[in-house]
Amino acid sequence: MPKKVTAAEVAEVAGVSRTTVSFVLNNVPGMRISEETRTRVIEAAHKLGYHPDATARRMVSGKTSVIGFVLRQSPDQVFADHFLPQVLSGLSQYASSEGYYTLFAPIPLDDNSDGYTRLVRERHVDGIVLSGPRSDDEELPKIHAEGAHIVLVGQLPSLDIPSIDVDNVGGAKQAIQHLLSLGHRRIAMITNAPLAYTASADRRAGYRQALEEAGLAYDANLVRMGDFTPQSGYRAMSELLALRPLPEAVFVASDTVALGAMQAIRQTDLRIPQDLALIGFDDIPLDEYVDPPLTTIHLPAFGLGWGAAEMLIRLISGEEIRTRQVYLDTELVVRDSCGANQNKS
Amino acid sequence: MPKKVTAAEVAEVAGVSRTTVSFVLNNVPGMRISEETRTRVIEAAHKLGYHPDATARRMVSGKTSVIGFVLRQSPDQVFADHFLPQVLSGLSQYASSEGYYTLFAPIPLDDNSDGYTRLVRERHVDGIVLSGPRSDDEELPKIHAEGAHIVLVGQLPSLDIPSIDVDNVGGAKQAIQHLLSLGHRRIAMITNAPLAYTASADRRAGYRQALEEAGLAYDANLVRMGDFTPQSGYRAMSELLALRPLPEAVFVASDTVALGAMQAIRQTDLRIPQDLALIGFDDIPLDEYVDPPLTTIHLPAFGLGWGAAEMLIRLISGEEIRTRQVYLDTELVVRDSCGANQNKS
DNA sequence: CTGTTAGCGCTTTCAA
DNA sequence: TTGAAAGCGCTAACAG
Q1: Residue B189 and residue B176: Cα distance in Å, rounded?
Q2: Structural domain of A81
Q3: Do B88 and B142 sit in the same domain of this protein?
Q4: The model scores a pTM over 0.85
Q5: What pLDDT, in 10s, does the model give residues A45-94?
Q6: CA separation for the pair B185, B179 (Å, rounded)
Q7: Distance in angstroms (rounded) separating the CA atoms of residues B264 and B277
Q8: What is the distance in angstroms between the Cα of A303 and the nearest Cα belonging to chain B?
Q9: Cβ neighbours of A79 in B, within 8 Å
């Protein structure tokens, strides 16, 4: 056990009072201390291997300099979360640039309430970023009312909590516009999830808007439901493949679901993109390595984490937040599954 | 701002002393307190919305109940880390079961030293799990000598720090044995990385051992170097495909690298697994969705996190650690790329 | 059974 | 310029 060196010991060795030690080491402004005392203190601290105790410091400062990242997902979901590393990177990178540490707290949904609320109520953290908020979360409104600093990654229209999310409508429009620009007109869609999820509903809305802006009618028969998994994509695509005439292109609102769709297509004579163009959504790491590499809409996961941390720390610092609901832009990533690269190569 | 309710206020409302409040709320053993006082205190606490301040508690208990998870990787690497969600899940799940929180601290390698050492020296955490330790890390031996509680995920033979790692030799042997059991004899290998990495050297050692145990000679010409990326796998496989006679099977010591190898094979007339069997290593999520689904060796990422947390908390609690260097078993995951499922379907 | 009291290590007025 | 002293909110000996 390393016996902790206290400021008092440093003071003694340097022959000054603890106060002086504190002033010197923290470089307190207004205080003008003789150069000699200063070096004496610094040397003593160095020699003794002194490091101020974070807990004691928190005690008096009243702030922890830690933000919590709360994940409202089941362990299985955390497992399969392609974006966790990126969101977490963005979050902790920004936090660290502002002198904050990041507490990682995955709290399963069934672990009702008190799991993550303790984080803020017992002041383990100065505030939290809550990913995947649930509208049936009864504790959230409470701690919000208690004045806890919270930023949501996702949506929860019922509550007036600052949030950050992806512009799903805009992203879907980008996808459709790309398809349109390549001359496709009969464009089908497979959703990423049931429409009860706002992300899913928004992506379909973007699909529809882009179509209508191009003077094309929305045909419900061309829209099939995906359900997070490749299996659901396989099924949905099989249905689409039974249609006559065939769609010319398919917008799959999730790359994971698109993987299954590709498998269904592979079992036919159809070739991607020559006979059927395919565009995904999310830009998961493997897109580059499937055959053909999947054109998709990039989800700014790093930005989500970064932005959430930025908003939260602003909140904690008591600064004003300009926009309480932030939407991040997506980006079209052109690879080979839509045929846009045909002439280039 | 929620004005914090202190134990003193609870005491006042309940008409007792702070001590009693503390005893009741913490359910201190030996203390026998009248049922009536007890309920009075509990009710007062509840009514006031009292939550003990974690910082104050740490101050006196001397422990933070937080463990740090330090990632010695560049942001790019964190990004591409397929296993982070799993390791982190395992770690935080075990930690939480023992009443610990997890502090996530990615510290780039170039951010020399003092980055993560502060975590332990300033007592932000009770100990750390260090993932991806570097032998050129000069601070690590120091804080270890200072008595910090540390568990390594990976290897660092030069230091006597408890560590946990995957049994890479055993895993590679499993892969080769599977190939052998399917009748393959001329088995090539593509490494996952340069041999300077212990994981890479160990996997090649396992390949060699399995071969020799089966009475087969090790042929250096059948071994090519991968370098983390699919591109490197593509290149290495291209070299292998130029060999005559062709290998019957290839063990690629990384699924990511195997992705590139598959692409190289796809450009020939060879079919997997009929003409060439392929087995990977790692079991990344996308293995199921490539064509054909990749047979591989499962890396117990969740177990790595779980086990590291277990060792660390044992260390913190002052318990004895039976094995200081733990090796986790891998597992063969049979899919379609080796032909083992031929007869089944 | 319950209250008094003394800190944990640090920051920070207020005096000297 | 520097030092003395007052807490931050809580726990835990030690009395009563």
Answers
A1: 10
A2: 63-165+300-329
A3: yes
A4: yes
A5: 898 889 999 999 999 999 999 999 999 888 877 877 889 999 999 999 99
A6: 8
A7: 14
A8: 13
A9: 85-86, 89, 302
